Structures are given as structure tokens and as C-alpha cells.
Fold this protein.
Amino acid sequence: MSSKRLRLILLIFWLILAGLIVWLKVVPLGHVTYIKSYPAKFNILGGKGFIDNLTPVDRVSIYPGQQAVITGDPVYFSVFTPRTFSEAKVTVTYQDNLSIATPIIEAGVLVDNVIWRYQLAPLENKLLDTGFKDWYKIQSGSTLLLQKNNNFTKLADFLDNLKAKPATICKDGNLKTCLVLYNTESLNSYLPVTNNLEKIPDFKAINIPLQGAHQFYFLAKADQALKFDFDFADLNLDKKSDPVVISVYKGNDKIYSTTILDNFGGDGLGQVRNFSVPLVYPTLSSSTDLYKLEIKAGEDIVIKKINKAPSALNVISKLHPVTVTDLPLSFWTDSSFIKVTTNNPASVQTLSFGSKSFLLTAAYQQFEFSNNTKGLKEVILNHDDVILETDGIFSFSPTSFFNPEFKKLDQHFVLSDDAQYILANYETPKNLTGNLKQALVTLNTQAAYRENGKYSFMISVPGLSLVKSGNMTISEIKVEFSGRTLWDKIKDKMLSYVN
């Protein structure tokens, strides 16, 4: 072989290699697909190694030549990408061996690594697929309406009435009892606030220290300034900086946010830092309305006391009381279940939920306790350092309780005579050969958390770890990312120079 031909071959080889690197690194067309198969298949274009294995190992079994078997909830996998993307379509091919106690399968992407919040969407909801066979069904795209009585023949008519004349939807005018929702964030513009905004419970100082991130609902009158005052403690148990981000939301819109920086950082290791934060947001010009307060902080931060707020604060979904001197502790909720966890062996105890006693028998393990009694139920703790979770609201007193949320069609749902409509954003999974199913979720990754080039994803079967029966086998996970093309980036760069 002549030296010229050899140099030509080497040049072509290096050009192909360089082109392949650019293709994989830049993703010039803005689309890339990665595939993980169980059992593993060779697929060079599918990105071998781009999708990590499912974890943790105590919730999933992966044996050579077999499918991945999920036996606990939730499980995680990460995907390495050479660049950021704005959207991810996650397709899961699976076999469902789950019990009736676990009717829901969801998937999502990590959007906040401080409070570990995942943006979730449904892969499957058996309650919607088979639980309401005698109800009337209307579906347009992914929007689904189930009606106990055939009052609406068009989905658009129902949505228009829901937005403009909500009092006409239900016979008694109470949407909160007759309308059930599932995965309806995209339909929030149609949903009115359901609580009585004329009755605003007065704020009373909250003296129960709460560890880590917490969210609260509160009500505010028209022309009222939002005044808050908090006492915090930074435990400084590690060397990481511990900023506190305080935000106020109206609906999905963030109307105020401020960050309190940690001036101690690693220098304060082992020293508790106490500090107060007074906040005043400019006077509101809108009508009396519902707001959400978010205090986002790591586990090193304790909300020692809330001295001032526009009205009573009700905790959303999760609270973690610590270092309490006045025991026992009491909280109120209208939910039918609570999840209870403690990482402190000294906090193992007998607790009360709606006048029924339940045993929290071990640390580092989540327990779920149910009480289907209607109305407000008291939760009594004899020891603190316990994490309480539910799908609704916790209140510090029965007189300050209000719950603006609609009923949810989750695994805890119990059908009542009051329920007349179910509104959902949902599509039934496809049935494939060999008892396999295939479902797709579309996730917004613009605000997703990405570290070391990796997005973190979750597959969740709520309640699977608690019922300890059934499983879900995965045969394939496919993630299709999409975002700006190389031409889009060039155009943006050119426009920035022009402007």
C-alpha cells in the first residue's frame, strides 16, 4: 500500500472519528435517544453506559440474562448526557405483577436536590383504567373526564363551566367533595380555589421547631402586606454552606423570593448559629386569595419559631418536629392516612391517629397508618424527631385548619357518594405481546437538576415497600431527549451580537 493511500485512509478515519465525537458531544440536531435493556443488548447508538442501572439494590434485583425486578419504592436511575436538553420522553416497557393495593406507577425527573422533589407523571393508573366501568367517559388527547351521571357530552363544556361557573358543576356547589383530580397540573387554569376565603383564621406563633424544608398554605386579604418573621438555627453539623430560600407563590407563580446566605459556612462547624429573618412583601392589590410559603433549606437548618405571618399557616404534606420541650405534640389532618418515619431510635413510640393507637416500632423504616373516619383527625406524638407525611394538610390547631386541595385519585382513594366527576391528564399504557405493557411520560427538563452531566430519574410504585407483595419487571427503559439544535444556538449567538 502506498504512503499516499495510507495517509488518505488515516485522514478519513480521523475525520470519521472527529465527526462521531462532535455528533455525540454536540448533538447538533437537538435530539438523542438512550436505551437500557434487561437483559442487556448490544446497541452502540443506544448509548451503552449512558443509562445507569436501577438503584438501590435492596429494592431491585438484576440478574444476568433476566429482566430487572422492582420490589420496593421508589427506584432511581441516572442518564448521562453530553449537554442539556429541554424535554425528556421516558418510555418504560414492563410487566405488571402488582397487587390491587398498588394501582399506580409513575416516573419522573429530579427538579430540586435540596428538598429532593421529583416532577412525576403517570405510567399507569389502574383506578382510571378499570375502576369506574359504570361511569361515562370523555377523552380528548390526554385529558380524561369520568362522570357518574352523563351531565356533559363535551369535555370543553365541562372545562368552561368549571372555570366560569364552578358552582353549577355540583348540586351542592361544593367542588371539593364532588370533583376528584389526578395529574391535572396542566389544567390548573380551569380550577378555582375551593375554600371559603372570607373566613381567614388568625395567625398564632408557631413554637414547634421544624427541621429542614417545609411548605405552608396561608390566606391573605386584599390590600394586606405579607409580613413574616422567622427564627432559624443552623446546626452546622457539616461543612457545607446552608442557605435558606424563602419564597411565596400564588398558584404556580412565584411572586416573591429571597435567599439568606450562610455567612458561617465551614467555619461554624459544631457551632449552632441562631438568626432571625423579618420579611415584608409589598401590599397586595388583588382580592383575598390563597398563597403558598416555601422555606427551602437542608437538614442542617431548623425553623425554631415563626413569629409572624398574614394568617394561620397549615403545613403541606410533610413536617418534621424536633427538639420539642413541651410533649406530647398534637397536629390535625383530614387525610385518611399518615406515613411515619424516624431516624432516631429514641423516638420509637405508640402514637395516636384519630383516637386510634399505632405502633412506630423501629427507626430507619417507614410505616403507614390508616384511619378512614371522616372529618378532622388529631395526630398525637409522645416523642419528637418524627417525620409525618400525608397527601394533604397538617394544622397546628383544629380552629386554624383549612384544606384548599381537591381529592386525589391515588392509591389511598376511597370512593364516596359525593364524588361525581374525575378529571385527569392520563393515557392508558399500550398492551404488548407476552403480558408486556409500554407507557410514556413527557417531562420538562429545563428546570431539572443535573450534576456531573447526569439527570436523575425515578420510577415509583407508591406503597410497594409497605404492602411487601407483588413486583414490577422492567424489560426496557428508553429516554428521548430533545432541545435546541446547533443552528438554534448559532442564531441566538448571532442575535446577541446584533443586539
About this structure: Residues 60 and 80 are 21 Å apart (CA to CA). The helical segments are 3-26, 126-130, 155-164, 175-178, 464-467, 486-498. The mean pLDDT is 86. The first strand starts at residue 31 and ends at 37.
